[in-house]
Amino acid sequence: MNSRLLLEQYRHWIYPRPIEDMRKAISSGGYLEIGDPTYYWPLMWSDSRRVDQPLDVLCAGCGSNQAAYYACQNPQWNVVGIDVSDSGLAHQSLLKERHALRNLELIEIDLTQVSQLGKSFDFITCTGVLHHMTDPDAGLKALSSVLRPDGILNIMMYGKHLRMGIYPLQEAFRLMRLEQSSSDVTLIREILQSLPQDHPVHRYMRHSNDLGYDAGIVDTFLNPLDQAYSVKDIFSFTRRAGLEFLNWCEPAEYSLRAQVPEDHPLWSRLDDLSQEEAAHLCDLLLQSRGTHRWMAAHPDYVAKAKIPFDHDALFDYTFRLTPGGKINEGHDSSGSDLFECTRGNLTFKFPGLLHHLTECMSFSRSIRSVLESDASFANDIQSLKAYVSRTLRDLYEMGHVQIFMPDSSQVLS
Ligand SMILES: C[S@@+](CC[C@H](N)C(=O)[O-])C[C@H]1O[C@@H](n2cnc3c(N)ncnc32)[C@H](O)[C@@H]1O
Q1: What percent of the chain has pLDDT over 90?
Q2: Is pLDDT above 50 for 410?
Q3: Which residue in 170, 274, 366, 405 is a FRET match for 89, CA 20 to 30 A apart?
Q4: CA–CA gap between residue 399 and residue 405 (Å, rounded)
Q5: 83, 112, 213: which to mutate for ligand 1, most atoms within 8 A of CB?
Q6: Is residue 409 scored above 60 in pLDDT?
Q7: Best probe residue, ligand 1, of 9, 108, 115, 129 (max atoms within 8 Å of C-beta)
Q8: Spatial separation of the C-alpha atoms in residues 260 and 254, rounded to whole Å
Q9: pLDDT category, 159, cuts 50, 70, 90?
Q10: pLDDT digits (tens, 9 = 90+) for 140-149
Q11: From the alpha carbon of 16, which atom of ligand 1 is closest?
């Protein structure tokens, strides 16, 4: 019953807001797909896959724009967009024709049936879809079955805590028997405006782009099928499908190091937290995520792609600053070197030694070769290595650096 209503919703309230000229939207910076492998390549395939290799891409639940975006942005990729809504697909057919996207195939099919296409994929994106299914587990398992052994799944699902103001309102609107009609959308806008300034929904609304248009209001407040996930839920959901968590699209949002000041009393109680526990704690403390975006892959691939922070092999890796990041050199009050890594509104300070690491930042030299080339470190190489691996782990967890397997520098060239 609810899945039939959901299908009716996406047929009638075409979502997201259709883009008329995809090339213009991309070139003006008006549309960027978070999760586009072009921007996350080293987090996905730091081993051997070259940026210019063609990819087979699946957009599962592609809505009105997403598959056309990938096909337009990456003409060398083969993109398949699937959806159950014929109106979303019809808009992308227009975009396909308008921009002569010969690398785009659009198919009306339920994503749980995707194996019937007889294809497998290097990259699957499924954003804003699984949390609207009656059985999200079956959805993720179906996608996992068509993911190649070194393929990556990019998923976005609702985050529980920032959306906590949404669910009581959904129930209230059901009680009021509001329908998916223009007049009831207008009424919802009026109700939202009348709510007290400290109502939890206002915090959500400040973070969401969806509430400026009618289909976004319907999707948020009148959706018949909608469930949200905590960070802990995300890890178990991923594993139940036989997949393993690879990384967040924006790791800093889930890093205590990034989110909690260094001198905070909380640090005295945080020994021995795994990265997963730390991310869960971040989510519980900050309650700032209305969506979670992460990458998953088959367990064997994730084991291979894991960066060995606790192992000497780390020093054969290379790394670079994440594009958009900057390093500033300075001094603390006692005159010692103090480095500051900034990216967007995130800053991470760390003392000394970084001038040695900056030499590796073009990923042309391994960390080992830089450390071993300075004779002054010879006596204390073990503590230097401990410092370097700690600092690199922090920088990596905050998304400030991208780390590459040995001999993989060609992947970006
Ligand atoms: C919120 S929209 C997200 C669209 C797109 N992924 C994006 O991020 O812009 C959800 C889309 O998933 C589609 N959808 C929902 N359940 C589906 C299913 N079982 N199989 C395929 N598509 C589905 C809907 O028709 C709708 O187009």
Answers
A1: 54
A2: no
A3: 170
A4: 17
A5: 83
A6: no
A7: 129
A8: 11
A9: very high
A10: 999 999 999 9
A11: 9
Distance from residue 66's CA to the centre of ligand 1 (Å): 10
How many C-beta neighbours within 10 Å does residue 47 have? 16
Task: Name the residue among 127, 121, 130 with its Cα closest to residue 152.
Answer: 121
Structure-block tokens of residue 338: 């103090």
Residues contacting residue 347 through CB under 8 Å, at least 6 positions apart: 340, 341
CA geometry: angle 128, 132, 133, nearest 5 deg: 125
Nearest CA to ligand 1 atom 19: 110
| Pocket perturbation via mutation, ligand 1, pick of 10, 34, 89 by most ligand atoms within 8 A of CB | 10
Ordered DSSP codes for 24-78 = HHHHTTS---TT-HHHHHHHH--SS--TTS--EEEEET-TTTHHHHHHHH-TTSE
Answer whether residue 82 shows pLDDT above 90. yes
Model pLDDT, residue 199: 95
Angle at the Cα of 272 (from 44 to 342), degrees rounded to 5? 50
**Domain parsing of the chain, residue ranges:** 2-160+228-305, 162-221, 312-412
Lowest mean pLDDT among 135-149, 207-221, 352-366, 378-392: 352-366
| Fold topology of 2-160+228-305 | Rossmann fold (3.40.50)
pLDDT of residue 359: 63
Could you tell me which residues come within 8 angstroms of residue 80 by beta carbon, excluding any fewer than 6 positions away?
56, 57, 58, 59, 67, 104, 105, 106, 107, 117, 119, 121
Tokens of 299: 């367990």
The residue type of 208 is: S
Residue 353 is predicted with a pLDDT of 59
3-state secondary structure 334-375: CCCEEEEEEECCEEEEEECCHHHHHCCCCCCCCHHHHHHCCH
Q: The tokens of 377 are what?
A: 């470190």
Query: Out of 67-71, 226-230, 317-321, 350-354, which region has the weakest mean confidence (pLDDT)?
Result: 350-354
CB atoms within 10 A of CB 34: 14
Quick check: 312 pLDDT over 80? Answer: yes
Ligand 1 centroid from CA 110, angstroms: 9
Among the listed ranges 65-79, 152-166, 201-215, 237-251, which one has the minimum average pLDDT value? 201-215
pLDDT for 254 equals 92
Give 106's strand partners: 81
